[in-house]
Each structure stands twice: as C-alpha cells, then as structure tokens.
Design a protein that fits this description.
globular; single chain; Purple Acid Phosphatase, chain A, domain 2; 15 strands; alpha/beta; disordered N terminus; 6-stranded mixed β-sheet
Amino acid sequence: MTIANRPPAQAGHWYKLWFVLICSFYKCWSASSFVFPVGVRRIGGLLNEDVGHCRLCSSNLNSINHGNHLFRFGIIADIQYAEAADSLNFDRTKYRRYGHSMCIFRNALRHWKIEKPVDFALALGDIVDAKAAILKNQISCLDKVLEESKNLGKPLYVCFGNHCQYCFSRDFLREKLVPPELLHQPQFAVSAVEDKFPMPKHLFYHWSPKPGWRFISVDTYDLSIIGPSCTLSGQLSEQLITANNPNDLNNGSAWFDAQPYDRIRWAPYNGGIGNFQLHQIEKILEQCKNDDEKVIFFGHQPIYSPLKPKSLVWNSEEVLRTLWKFADRVVAWLAGHDHDGEFLDNLSMFPCILILLFLP
C-alpha cells in the first residue's frame, strides 16, 4: 500500500523519500511503502487495526514513480523477543507472544531484502523484552536477533527503549549496538554552561545516508529512573517524577491513579531528554541548516500525541520547541513504545510528519 505525493501549500522543490514500513502483529504482518516530499502539509494517514494487521490509509492516493527515490529504508519497532512462554502484557489485556516475534522480524527482513530492497533499516527500540532479563537469557536473545539481522546484508540502526534499559547496562548497549564508526562522534562544546550539562553515557548518534539527509538516533531515556545517562540525570529524574506523580511507583497498577491528563506521561517506563543532549541536537540542527540537510529523528518514545499521552517523552514540549526553531529542516520523528500505534501529521506547528510505529 502506498501513500502518494500531495502538493504542499506552496510550490517548491520536491524531495522524495521512500519508507518501507513493517506494521507487525503476532498472527500476521503487512508491509507498506510510501513517499512524501519535505514540506508536505497534509497526508491524511491513519493506522487502523483490521483483522489482525495494520494498514496505512490515505484519502488521496495517486500513482507513484517507483524508480524515483533517493533511498529506501525499513522500520520495525518493539520486537521484544524473549525465549519465554506466552503471557499477558503489562496491562493484562493482551497476550504477548515473545518467541513468535522472531518470526515477524524474519519476515520483515525477507521483505526488505527481496520484495522491497532497502539501503538500511531502523529498529525503534526494545529489541529484547524484559522477560528475558527475568529469565537471565537476555544476552543470548539479543545475539539471536542480531544474528538474524545479518541476513538483511544491510546496516540495522537502533535506538534504545525501556526494555533495553531493563535488560542491559548503557555501556553494554553502546558497545554492542551503536555502529563502531559512530561511537566517538565529536560533541559540541557547552562552554560557560558546562556545569548544567553533565557528560552522559549517551546512546545518541547521527549519520548521513545520502548527501542532503541526516538521521538522528535520540536517547529518550537520558532522563529516567530505569537507566539514566549519569548520576546527576538519575537524581534529577527522581525529583521530576516524584513532583509530577505522587502515586506509589513501586506499584504498577497505581501509576496513573488520579493523575491529571497532562501528567499521565510521568510513569517509570517513560523518560526524558536531558539538557546536554538537547544542546547537542540544537547544534547539529544548526549545522544541518548550514549544510542544507533535511533531518529525520528516531527514538523509542513519541514526542507528540494529543489523544494518547501515556507514552510521551517527559519533556516533549521542550523537545518540540527545539525542533520548531528548525521547522524547515525537520522531516519526521519516528517512534515505537505505544503498542497501539498512531500516525500524525503535525499541521499547525511545522512541516514535520510524526510517525509512531509499533509491534504489540
């Protein structure tokens, strides 16, 4: 299924980019690819569940020139593989089929390699489920996923989610999953405000797959109580979540009790983006503006969802304000985490397409 080009509000040059979306469920999966121009104002896409699979819909489908694309990449979110028996999810509303998720991942890789060949793929966090850590086989589970990914024959870039933090240390994740050539990227100086920006063990990196384009993997658990990037970030996270959620955080069934709508995001399975990382993002965007690069962000958590705030980055508004400064550079924010999924085109703020993908 395709989402076709739609004219933007103002005439201008059209940059075309193919996405290959793998919207996966436990019983079946479907793949979609679509193209959009930078600066598009509307797409009208929605994610709908229909007999066990996910489909992308558009009210304005046109023909697409399949040979005219800059590059193509695959996306999959929340594989959450574990060598474990099926069981109920956190909310006890659905069965989790941990082992079968490997079959879905294998199907996705086959699709990306044979049916819609890609240049690279993105995994939007939570490759391995916390269940593996409970069973103490998380390393073997991760190794199996990574070994399977080699069949693609193309790079797999990852961001890191809450289940990554449950299963592994930051040092392990960084050495195991960040591409070696991106491990020691130069960081922008913070000069006079250095005291406010402690150097984190960050899981943040960026690269350019094609001249004029840059991808940024964002560490959305930089601030968190499950895997903060440094001691100061952990202390700040404890203060923030306690101030915004008075419930017993050791009792998962009580996290959201009497929480006002705008504070539902303040749950232990979410996190935030610290000052140091925000500073780096802003400096990279300034450089992208100077170099005439378009930017695609991908991180485990969404930063915008007016109707479904449970999975949002703690300081989403602060992150959005940073992105708004570079509205002509930012193309998309790709996220997982929300297992019900959502597709949003943020019309009123800037020409950024916010895409939330998921694997239940």
